[in-house]
Amino acid sequence: MRLRRPQIIVKNKEQLEGIRESGKRNIEILDTVAEKIQEGMTTEDIDHIVYETTQKLGGIPAPLNYEGFPKSVCTSVNSQVCHGIPSKDVILKSGDIINVDVSTIYKDYFSDSSRMFCIGKVSDEARKLVEVTKEAVYEGLKQVYPGNRFGTMGNAVHQYAKQYGYTVVRQIGGHGVGLEFHEEPYVSFVSKAGTGAIFEPGMVFTIEPMVNQGTDEIYIDGNNDWTVYTMDEKLSAQWEIMVAVTENGYEVMAY
Ligand code: MF3
Ligand code: CO
């Protein structure tokens, strides 16, 4: 049996400041990826950028060796839904869409956020999926304020994506974050309005829906036990922000 410290769902001021500082570094790492990412690069090159930048900023990449994950960042291309493993064999080509999911430990505080990047000339269809997925995250964000519920937020994300004919992945969602990488509660983006835990000031969690062009069905790559794909091989997109609940709404701590 593993003894774990009881989770602190509501963070105090000092903890919030620590998570905020970690989040700033996570943002800077993603900004650096945004500057450098381009056609012809491998996803392993992205891994190096993330590792080097994290080091320079005094942090540790949270994914590295996390439950056996072998790299510093997740890079998920096209029909990969999440947890893509950087590789020298995956070369970014014009038309690709890629999620780069960065998580940082800084002075023992965890941060987590991800962005999509369009490589070269991307089809209108793919670009639309990427844009709508980002908009869906910010629709959810509008529902974050004390007294409202997680289920209402997740439902807002789902309804927004649905309007465009997209589906939202059901088996994987967001999570509390800050003192650990993945904390309670699990955050669904296919939830029912009016259900789930009530938002309280000091809670910190991620909004990170995976939005699919086709079916919401997914599978895990049997070769590495990590990378998740869409069952129909159609495209999937994801954006992730790390949000704190404040006295009157929210604070985005990483994006
Ligand atoms: N960053 C992912 C998330 O948003 C978790 C990745 S776990 C890893 O929750 F081991 F693959 F890094
Ligand atoms: Co996350």
User: Average pLDDT, to the nearest integer?
Assistant: 97
What CATH calls the topology is Creatine Amidinohydrolase
Number of strands: 15
**Uncertain parts:** none
Helix/sheet category: alpha+beta
Find the CATH superfamily.
Answer: Creatinase/methionine aminopeptidase superfamily
**Pattern of helices and strands:** HHEEEEEHHEEEEEEEEEE
Radius of gyration: 17 Å
The number of domains is: 1
- Indicate the overall shape: globular
Quickly name the level 1 CATH class.
Answer: Alpha Beta
Quickly give the CATH architecture: Alpha-Beta Complex
The residue fraction in helices comes out at 25-40%
Task: Tally the helices.
Answer: 4
What percent of residues are in strands?
25-35%
User: What is the straight-line distance between the termini?
Assistant: 36 Å
**Largest pleated sheet:** 4 strands, antiparallel
What ligands does this structure carry? 2-amino-4-trifluoromethylsulfanyl-butyric acid, cobalt (II) ion
